[in-house]
Amino acid sequence: MDVRRRPVKPLDGPVDPRSKQRRADDVVVAGGDASSIKASDALPLPLYLTNAVFFTLFFSVVYYLLSRWREKIRTSTPLHLVTPAEMAAIVAFVASFIYLVGFFGVDFVQSLILRPAGDVWTADDEEDEVVVVGADHEKILLKEDSRSSPCGQALDCAPIVQKPKLVDPVVQDAPKEKVIEAVPIALPEEDEEIIKSVLEGKTPSYSLESKLGDCKRAAAIRREALQRITGKSLSGLPLEGFDYESILGQCCEMPVGYVQIPVGIAGPLLLDGREYSVPMATTEGCLVASTNRGCKAIFMSGGATSVLLRDGMTRAPIVRFASAKRAADLKFFLENPANFETLAVVFNRSSRFARLQNIKCAIAGKNLYMRFSCSTGDAMGMNMVSKGVQNVLDFLQNDFSDMDVLGISGNFCADKKPAAVNWIEGRGKSVVCEATIKGDMVRKVLKTSVESLVELNMLKNLTGSAMAGALGGFNAHASNIVAAIFIATGQDPAQNVESSHCITMMEAINDGKDLHVSVTMPSVEVGTVGGGTQLASQSACLNLLGVKGANKELAGANSRLLATVVAGAVLAGELSLMSAISAGQLVNSHMKYNRSGKDLAKVSS
Ligand code: ADP
Question: What is the pTM of this model?
């Protein structure tokens, strides 16, 4: 995709180099820019017709001249004696030759020596070709794609993967289609002893790290033991190149390697006057390209704006009493504003960042569900809120000694399950993000019209989802974008369930010329400290967004900013997929682009 963005003017005042902040109104829309005019625009006929004409001309004059040449040799006529017809044929030969070399030769040479210009954009990309991906793996081609490499295919940037140390070379060379059997290889005697002990069940696999005091060695030994037990090779799963100490006791137990997921960049996403390059970890072909196209439409229209509506993580324990009356007593106690301050003091002891916001109760017979909500700084906050809740439960036992605590989580929280309580009350960050997309950009970048987008949004995202009985699923594919950003930035991917709750709204404005689009996401659960966020790769992606770690000036500012970026990227993804569907390319493109070139029948199961 040849997309160009003209450089934006720098701010009048000093610019923070980290944030690359730009004013939204500094965006230069390059409509009518001479640089976007193509030589082919000057041709009186469509390109394929002129190509066909010159091809035919070239081969017919070559055939004619060769037959004349043979005739002259046969009749011993001097070659320099040319008839007017031969002269015309020579001129036609030279002209068609120049055309063909100029058209195909230059393009070929350029393809060898020039690289694509990155993510720079112009407004008038009439030839922009984008394949977008949507929910249910719908891939949609918006225009015939002349590029030879499929979307998402690596160019010359294949990662250097170190060979797993413990893998037999015979195994590595085996054909990929076959199930690879592991061949035991000899290790240092010391390690062999430990492997033997693991295989005999004398040393538990989980205890290797603490026994050896070397996480990498523990992973290598566990891996080899696993291969010997199962007889299956792990040769494709890298062992080298990962810091196993960094996950100890925090992110993953009993590691034997790590899975590689490519990270693509969508953007710049112009959001609240700042540009973001959005990292997306995905193996879903064309998802990044699709989001990128949405970012372009937003950028060329002056950017998107977001508002954070609330920020509070929740946890809801379940307690039981002997009667509904007693359960109701506790409900009234917890919801009485006069008791809030005491409860907050007890709760907030869990962390200097945890601040109790409210407690909402629900009763089912004699069982009480108490939904505690609190701010958690830059942490996603599940641990923090759970600790606070435990403090309050211990405190309540004094006055409600007949309270039977059944569980710290009673599913009224609700974590990692689709639930109306999150959709209505919110969980984590509640964000709304909006943009006005200029009619011109809807046509030129998104290749559709304002009217058809609005109509499709009403019938698909609103009515269609209502017909399906959707819960928070009033969107085209928010979860695609949320999942990819979550994985790239070290969020808990399981929380994609509620973090993808989203309603997409579209409305024609300015007398139907422009499009107002918004996404409202009530439960985006993200953090920039804790969990997987501090791992090297994930931390690098957070750093790219300028939200790595704890915000030193204002606790919570980084995680809140990350939530708005997620919503901004979802806005871009929604725009792009909805446009593709409204352009009516779904079925053809699905058949053409959602099929792997590989013969899957040959891949053994
Ligand atoms: P979570 O609650 O999301 O599961 P953790 O249990 O890892 O995450 O809690 C985050 C940890 O990071 C806490 O120990 C907290 O004290 C610490 N921390 C440091 N800076 C911050 C910050 N700005 N916001 C939130 N937590 C922070």
Answer: 0.74
